[in-house]
Design a protein that fits this description.
The structure is a homodimer of 142-residue chains. The first copy, chain A, contains five helices and five strands. Chain A is of the alpha+beta class and 142 residues long. The first copy, chain A, is elongated, with a radius of gyration of 20 Å. Chains A and B meet through helix 1, strand 1, strand 2, helix 4 and strand 3 of A and helix 1, strand 1, strand 2, helix 4 and strand 3 of B. Chain A binds a DNA duplex (30 and 30 nucleotides) through helix 3.
Chain lengths: 142, 142
DNA sequence: AGTAACTCCTTTCACGGTGAAAGTATAAAG
DNA sequence: CTTTATACTTTCACCGTGAAAGGAGTTACT
């Protein structure tokens, strides 16, 4: 499996692993009509190509007390503060995802935090860098 | 390990698995000073409690041609269309995450799609249900 | 056509991670 | 001081894994 092309079978394998990364190669092989070893070689190819970056958990922050799930669009109020803002979000563990965006605002953040008073404190910190628009996730549908 | 409390060690294990879900229990055990089997028992507890929902990939949609990463806030224009909107987003494979939100808009969507013309078509479909605000991810920072 | 090179598969095999079971240690309760 | 419960370690058999070797199918060159 040195050929760098990604075919239909690779996509099926990706899809299977996205659903459950602990499927054995043998089990995936049963779906795509290959032996486990052949699946293993393709998974290695996908990893070498950088399609697969790593393996992680699907989990439930709410069950360990992180009941607030918020999306924050940040509008910077100065061109000087970008670097310090980045340092801030990178070091704040309640901020679990950050994107530079075009369109609405400058940055988009995902927040996982215990309760609304903690969120309040976080929002105060964000105000140092700019304004924001906040959305709270009521229910994850997909 | 029938005790339902989640302690500091459990959180360390969670953190380790979030970074790399394919660490062996033994390797995690070396970090938290337990045998692999003890770690296995705690992982099972976390799974039974629903803290761990499953295992999935960290991956790179850009490498299979899904170069556009967009966030969409949708404002419904009618109270009747919620169910059909849900059906729409659940069945559309470019929509990879959906939340009901309070604050800005009614729903928040994550889109992974090949190019802007495909995005255009998707946005046209969304317009049937309401208005939207679009942000494009330029760079994922965290 | 014949052969060489290449790709991608299967088969085989040894290693090691895994969960189950049994044994051990510690702490709390009567 | 014993009983019980919890959470650990040790031991063990199973099986998933990657490596290696071999085979089948395809392409390209003479």
């Amino acid at each position: 499996m040195a050929n760098q092309d990604i075919d239909y079978i690779d996509l099926k394998i990706l899809q299977a692993l996205l659903e459950n990364a602990f499927l054995t190669h043998k089990e995936i092989g049963a779906k795509v009509h290959l032996t486990g070893q052949a699946v293993g070689a393709r998974v290695r190819k996908l990893t070498d190509l950088g399609v697969i970056d790593g393996y992680t958990l699907r989990w439930n922050p709410g069950k360990i007390g992180l009941t607030v799930h918020a999306f924050l669009t940040v509008f910077m109020n100065s061109n000087q503060s970008h670097q310090s803002f980045r340092d801030f979000v990178l070091s704040n563990e309640a901020v679990t995802e950050v994107h530079r965006v075009s369109g609405e605002g400058c940055y988009w953040l995902r927040i996982r935090i215990g309760d609304s008073s903690e969120l309040n404190k976080l929002l105060d910190s964000v105000l140092k860098y700019g304004n924001y628009r906040l959305s709270l996730s009521i229910e994850q549908i997909k």
